[in-house]
Amino acid sequence: MYVLGIETSCDETGIAIYHARQGLCNHLLYSQVKMHSDYGGVVPELASRDHIRKLVPLIKQSLKESRLKSTDLNGIAYTAGPGLMGALLVGAATARSLAWTWQIPAIAVHHMEGHLLAPMLEENPPAFPFVALLISGGHTLLVQVKGIGRYQLLGESLDDAAGEAFDKTAKMLGLGYPGGPKLSALAEHGNPQIKFPRPMTDRPGLDFSFSGLKTFTMNTFNACKKTDQDKADIAAAFQNAVADTLSIKCQRALRQTGLKKLVVAGGVSANKQIRASLTEMTDKEKAQIYFPRPQFCTDNGAMIAYAGCQRLLAGQYEGLEILARPRWPISELSCL
User: Fold this and answer.
1) Residue 255: enclosing H or E segment and its boundaries?
2) Between these two residues, 69 and 317, which has the higher pLDDT value?
3) How many structural domains compose the chain?
4) Binding site for substrate: residue ranges?
5) Are residues 162 and 261 in the same domain?
6) How far is the first Cα of the chain from the last one, in angstroms, to the nearest whole number?
7) What is the pLDDT of residue 187?
8) Among 327, 292, 336, which Cα is nearest to 124's?
9) Over the stretch 200-210, which tens digit does the pLDDT of each residue have?
10) Across 279-300, average pLDDT
11) Do 258 and 310 sit in the same domain of this protein?
C-alpha cells in the first residue's frame, strides 16, 4: 500500500509517500520561515496562500522522485488538526479532491498523533506500550500509549506550551524569529548561573506550566545590564529550567505507569539540552528513550503518511466531507 501524506497545519508544507512494507519512499518539506520572519511570527493568511502555491507542485515532485504515478497510490492521509484553520483547509481540500479524482480512500490524521508516531520511522522503533512526551510550539503533553489510538492523557500544559515559551522568551531577548532555535544557539555561549524556578515540580501531578517561567525571565532581563553575555546567561538558565522540568515530569510519568520506554517527539524534541537531560534521566531510571531524527521532529509529511497508512490498513477512511479541526483533543481519537 502506497500512501501520500500531506501536512499543512501551520507554516511548513510537508509531502511524503510511505509504503506499508518498504517504508518511506520520499519526503519533501517547504518551510515558510523566511517569509514569516519579516513579521516576527506566523501570519495565518500568508501561510494559507503559500500552502496553495506549493502543495500541488510538491506532490508532483514527490511522485516523480519516487518513480510513481497517481494510479500507484492506494490512499491519501492529511493533517486535519489541530492547527491554523486556513492552513488545514488547504491540505484537507486538496487531499479530499485528489482522493475523489483518483478514486482512492482518504484519512484525516491528528497532527499530534503524527508526531507521537514519528519515531516509528526509525530503524529501531519502540514497541507498545510506552510513555510519550510531545513538545511543540503549540502543545506540551504526556501520554500513556498502549497502541495506535489507545492514548491516555497523563498531563499537559495549563498555559503556554514549551515551544511557545521558547519563542516568547527569544522575542523578549530580541532574538527574532524563529525564536526557539535562536535561543538554543545563544544558550550554548551562556553560563546558567542564574537560579530559575522549575515550575510545578514541587507539587504532585504531571501537568506543566511555563508562563511563570516566562515572567521570571522577563523580570531577570529587566533587572540586568542587557549585555550580550547577560542574554546568553539568561538563555542558558531558561533552557536548563525547561529541560529539568520536562525531565522531572517524565520521570514521574515512568514511575507512575511502571513503563520503561519514553518516546519524545515534536519540534522542541530537537533541542540538544532537552535531549541530553531526558537521556540522562532515562539512564538513571534504566529506561529506554526514543527520538525521531531531527528532520522528523518538526512538522513533516512523513509522520502523517505513516499514521495514515496504519489507519487505512485497519480499514478506516473518511467520507466525502472535508475535515478540518483547529482544536482536536487527542483523547477523541479512535482505537485501531
Assistant:
1) helix 228-257
2) 69
3) 2
4) 134-138, 167, 180, 271
5) yes
6) 17
7) 96
8) 292
9) 999 999 999 99
10) 96
11) no
Q: Which domain holds residue 72?
A: 2-116+296-332
CATH for 155: 3.30.420.40
Residue 85, number of CB atoms within 10 A of its CB: 14
211 with 102, same domain: the answer is: no
Instruction: Return binding residues.
Output: 111, 115, 134-138, 167, 180, 271, 299
State the number of CA atoms in the 13 A half-sphere of 308 facing the CB.
35
Q: Which residue's entry shows cell 499537559?
A: 156
In a domain, residue 122? The reply is no
Domain shared by 176 and 82, yes or no: no
Residue 336 predicted with pLDDT over 80: no
Predicted TM-score of the model (pTM): 0.94
Question: Any bridge partners for residue 144, and if so which?
Answer: 131, 152
Contact status, residue 143 vs residue 153, Cβ threshold 8 Å? yes
Binding site, annotated residues for Fe cation: 111, 115, 299
Residue identified by cell 524563529 is 178
Half-sphere exposure of 210 (CA within 13 A, CB side): 28
- The reply to whether 89 and 143 lie within a common domain is no
Same domain, yes or no, for 203 and 316?
no
Cell 535561543, located at residue: 183
Q: What is the pLDDT of residues 109-163, one digit of tens each?
A: 999 999 999 999 999 999 999 999 999 988 999 999 999 999 999 999 999 999 9
Domain-embedded: residue 63: yes
In a domain, 91, yes or no: yes
C-alpha span between 3 and 91 (Å, rounded): 15
Domain identity same for 276 and 151: yes
Place of cell 511522485: 63
pLDDT band of 178, cuts 50, 70, 90: confident
Residue 20 covered by a domain: yes
